[in-house]
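Progress against Task 2.4 (sequence-to-structure conversion) is shown through the following example record, which the project officer requested during the mid-term review.
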Amino acid sequence: MSLDTPQTETRRERLTAHEALQRLEHERASRLVQLRAIDEAAPVGEEQVMSTQKDTIRRVLTEVEAAFARVRDGSYGVCRNCSQPIPVERLEILPHTPFCVPCQRHAV
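Structure tokens generated for the chain above:
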């Protein structure tokens, strides 16, 4: 099933707040483990690559924290651009995303 087509099955349209928080906690924990692993493995001469990887992970952590705020204010799972529900399948894969697939394509 495509992530940018409306759902026609009886599958639920939104994650519960509890499910969203669990996925976001897992995402945050995974990214923090990645940062620690980079710090511990930092091979000499690859500082630039490691710095880029760490910057990317920190950016995702910022997005995860923003998603926690959206859960708290009730806007989690709603596209920031078009205000339509983000398909639950997309949130299962990318729990911190603020956009549906079509809007993400336009944002890039």
